[in-house]
Amino acid sequence: MSNLFKHSIAINPRQTLMKITSYVKEDIQASTIKDGIVVVYCPHTTAGITVNENADPDVVHDLIYGFEKVYPTLDSNYKHFEGNSHSHLKSSTIGTSQTFILNNGNLLLGRWQDIYFCEFDGPRDRMFYVKILEG
Q1: Mean pLDDT value of segment 112-116
Q2: At the topology level of CATH, where does 2-134 sit?
Q3: Which of 14, 20, 42, 126, by CA, is between 20 and 30 Å from 6?
Q4: Residue closest to 73 by CA, chosen among 11, 13, 116, 20
Q5: pLDDT at 115
């Protein structure tokens, strides 16, 4: 048995990490599945899904800063005609999905963890999926 949920989000900054843990927890509450696996998936090539610290907002700043140092937005050596090669590189590094354990109706996250939608080519209207699998 499984449940699939689709979410649409509007993101204004060019690059940001947006907490989406509350969406996932709402989906879990709406689901009849109490034990299994939760997959959060982003169907975009310039965005991703990650897990990181939720207590200090500077972590989000530092992640974006670090990715920008490794994959700068402006680099004359990029060939992709759309001018967003940096965002493809960042998305590929982060990945487009994360998998979580669901136990007794609870999403197993660490005390300081949240799930983030990572936008690297905004502003955009985006979507992500939450798939809950029993088992």
Answers
A1: 97
A2: Jelly Rolls (2.60.120)
A3: 14
A4: 13
A5: 98
Instruction: Go through 10-44 and write b for each residue having 16 or more CB atoms within 10 A of its CB, e for each that does not.
Output: ebeeebbbbebbebbbebbeebebeebebbbbbeb
With beta carbons less than 8 A apart as the criterion, state whether 112 and 55 touch.
yes
Interval 13-55: pLDDT, tens? 999 999 999 999 999 999 999 999 999 999 999 999 999 999 9
1: pLDDT confidence band, cut at 50, 70 and 90? low
pLDDT 10s digits, 126-135: 999 999 999 9
Q: Which residue has the tokens 């005609």?
A: 81
Torsional sign, CA 19, 101, 38, 89: positive
Check if the beta carbon of residue 108 is closer than 8 Å to that of residue 101.
Answer: yes
Which amino acid type is present at position 98? Q
Peptide linkage before 123 cis (omega within 30 of 0) = yes
Q: Which two tokens stand for residue 88?
A: 């493809």
